[in-house]
tRNA-dihydrouridine synthase
Amino acid sequence: MKISNIEFPDKPLFLAPMEDVTDPAFRLLCKRFGVDMVYTEFISADALIRSVKRTEQKLTIYDEERPVAIQLYGREADAMAEAARIAAEACPEFIDLNFGCPVKKVAGKGAGAGLLRDIPKMLQITSEVVKAVNLPVTVKTRLGWDEDSKVIVELAERLQDCGIAALAIHGRTRSQMYKGDADWTLIGEVKNNPRMHIPIIGNGDVTTAERAAECFDRYGVDAVMVGRAAIGRPWVFAEMKQYFQTGEIHPVLTFEEQKNILKEHIIASVRWLDIDDNTAIESVSNQRLKGIIHSRRHLAATPVFKGIPNFKETRIAMLRAENLDELFRIIDSVREPEHSL
Ligand SMILES: Cc1cc2nc3c(=O)[nH]c(=O)nc-3n(C[C@H](O)[C@H](O)[C@H](O)COP(=O)(O)O)c2cc1C
């Protein structure tokens, strides 16, 4: 499978773009566990043009995580084209356009999934961005605005005509937000449309290795994109790859190794958000850190501590811990439940 001139292995797995989640610290960890492609969290075209510092920081890419797509959102073609030119200077492999974000502050203002209500504008933005940069441009969108307007099969052809290099489809409508089950049948229909020739990336509710394999086999997609299942569990990609190769499911990490990865991710987040590479982590281990607050989403979602008896109090303490000394003491104290030994 190739997107533009970038080659991917058989059954490639992509890490879905996720705001406040897919920063370099997390992307690099997923890469270590075999993910084939990563995306930045979505980046506001307007904020990029205004040179907002926090937004510019989101353009940071490390060579070890390539190939990477920088994802942009916005509602005006000229701003999106200008933002794409700025993003291209960070040298990603792809510029990705977000036409799927359902939240009010984005879709309500006509950006993200809001563009599913104004297809001519979506196509204009896509064409302008394709013209503006020398990089391949990809799109991520949903099935349609609501149940009565699932336009993706026709829309995919029109986006392809604008010159995009690949299309990622989240199998929900904007109205569904994140509720209900993702519907992969229309993703399969897009893939099986004989007029489509660009790679199709399927997304939505892929949480297990078996489901990932089924999505390839049943719907024929060129890549499977995984989002929430990777939060607090970046090794999910290694589990999936192992299953593709062997047909068997074995833990790829021991309980202690999983805890160590969580700790490593927390340290990487602190390095990303609080301190530079030359500062010793020990020198801040009793301080309140942004990287710890940022890691809570992963600690709350991780399956590592599932099934541990009487874990509630420890969990609350873990999610309240404000410095590394305290947090790591709690994580270190958790023992693997007997039944899984
Ligand atoms: C916390 C969070 C943040 C997200 N941020 C983005 C984003 O910045 N850009 C985007 O295209 N989709 C975003 N999404 C949607 C995901 O990329 C993905 O389409 C969705 O979660 C469905 O896939 P999943 O079932 O594998 O999680 C976000 C989802 C979550 C849960």
